[in-house]
Amino acid sequence: MSKSDNLVEKLKEYFGFDTFKGNQEAIIRNVLDGKDTFVLMPTGGGKSLCYQLPALMMEGTAIVISPLIALMKNQVDAMRNFSEEDGVAHFINSSLNKASIDQVRSDILSGKTKMLYVAPESLTKVENIEFLRNIKISLFAVDEAHCISEWGHDFRPEYRRIRPLINEIGRTPIIALTATATPKVQHDIQKNLGMTDATVFKSSFNRANLYYEVRPKTNDVDKDIIKFIRAHEGKSGIIYCLSRKKVEKLAETLCVNGIKALPYHAGMDPATRSQNQDDFLMERVDVIVATIAFGMGIDKSDVRYVIHYDIPKSLEGYYQETGRAGRDDGEGICLAFYTNKDLEKLEKFMQGKPVAEQEIGKELLLETAAYAESADCRRKLLLHYFGETYQQDNCGNCDNCLNPKKKVDATELLTTVIETIAAVKEKFKTDHIVDILIGKTSADVESYQHDDLETFGSCKEDGEDVLNNVIRKALIEGYLDKEIENYGVLKITAAGKAFLKKPKPFQIVMQDDFDNEDEEIQLAGGGTSAVDPAMYSMLKNLRKQMSKQLNLPPYVIFQDPSLEAMATTYPITIEELQNIPGVGQGKAKRYGDEFIALIKRHVEENEIERPEDLRVRTVANKSKVKISIIQAIDRKVALDDLAQSKGMSFGELLDEIEAIVYSGTKINITYFLEEVIDEDKIYDLLEYFKESDSDSVDQAMEEMGDCTEEEVRLVRIKFLSEFGN
Predict the structure, then answer these.
(1) What's the rounded mean pLDDT across residues 365-390?
(2) pLDDT value of position 570
């Protein structure tokens, strides 16, 4: 029988599985050969088996170092279920009394125990070291090895003492395992454990079944969560909160609203906490509300959603916590609510800590903010953070990919960014580069005389958010690199230098605003937190079908913000549809029937509770102005005279007229067009808008060449009014 056949036979005998997953077999073989092993495998990939099977097969007892009492108990229970002998696995930690510890030692000495789980704190006790020196140890397994690194999301100083303790107990092979580690953290782990020559097994961090979504955190967050849970009734979920107080309060709120939920945090009575965990595992409750700070270590494969009420302090923490969803490869929804105020709170918590620790913490928070605020593929961003390249541009399973935002060209901006990084000798971080480009005379910029640079203030009009977006995308595309050891100093890569010599098209995605805490839903600009993605997609498809039937560009029927509003408030009557921004009476009557029929069907089929109390903002206070403009145009008043009489600039008047025609009212400005624009130009622009899929003024000016912005806007008004209304 080959070694491979023997391993599969042992896998079947001990665990009942017929095949290994991913790298498991190669890892186990490496451990059995007595070599140090470093395992990087996402949550749900089967890390535990990588040391459990060798422990059962090898002579002696494996020492498994784990940071969580809950996780130890969980894994010991699981191992006992696989074995006829209860003594096969034990743990030693602060929760055990002397009699229990004596029983554990007795089982180990008799040879029954193949695995002993210990917390690093327990390992430091003299009596435990003395005991372990006198038994046969098969291997040391360091679980949650990222706790070793200050750059990890759950740094535990005790973990840095593991290597000296192992040396004191007796040298045997080490297997270190983690689900989350950036290249920097990987290096830290191997260096600290003295296993730089270890065989490294790195699995992909991509969890294809997980759906990632970030929503702006508003005053209605509790209500949003209740609505989400009701839509996933009977399914298991975990909600993470920043504070114990919020955990208790939210769990109580959920219970009052008929949701079976329990709290879970480190400050609870251990017996209650343990009972709450068991109730969740045994599905007596659907939802556990827990603190981010306290790692739960709950081994439950069918968690269907993980909600972050507060954004975590690092992307590693976020990745590991979301990794608890869909471990059976089934549905896994990862929903996070984000406001920059939460990160400000986390930054305040760091005050008083050593400066180096504060710098590390701030850098990790910046990475989290970048992820939350980005409009690019979330999967691509996460994998890039862990040093992995995701080749596809659209993963099809995150909010940004399912609801893509508008892209804009940023080739010139990237060129300016790279030139500035080169000018400051690649010695500064993102915030310093952005300060130079927006012309901010900060203390650092002045002290280094960077306000004398040619690019100082050259991107003032673009603003901080756009420049951060450019730098973030440049890092992902490989034009820039970030020196983590130097707290995020930006470096230009070979690709970046090549780009500078010969720029090629570089686009960024327009972003959403994540700091709007108004209770009313804001619908201006690409997308909104409350949009139902399935509904929005169906509405876009219907608009596409109608545009083909009517031979009109889709935007003439309804603009994207109008569809977003429909997918948020679910209007099911013509009257309700008229209240949607950009619709109005004319468009509601002309195009509305098919849209409200589709919405009504979706609401009924999915038993959606329509948020009747949410009211979309309207422009009722401006209606008198609009009526007077329409009446003046009916009287054929010249538009420049009309603007002057209203105390408006000509551009502001065009804004008002555009709002009128976009909401479905027909007006006729031909009398004015023929006075100010050449007849051939009017014809060419009308033909352009008939053929174009976009109503972008900039795009039209670029395509048509010799047209001014005002000319394009005037003809667009004529086109929308005549063909759409």
Answers:
(1) 87
(2) 86
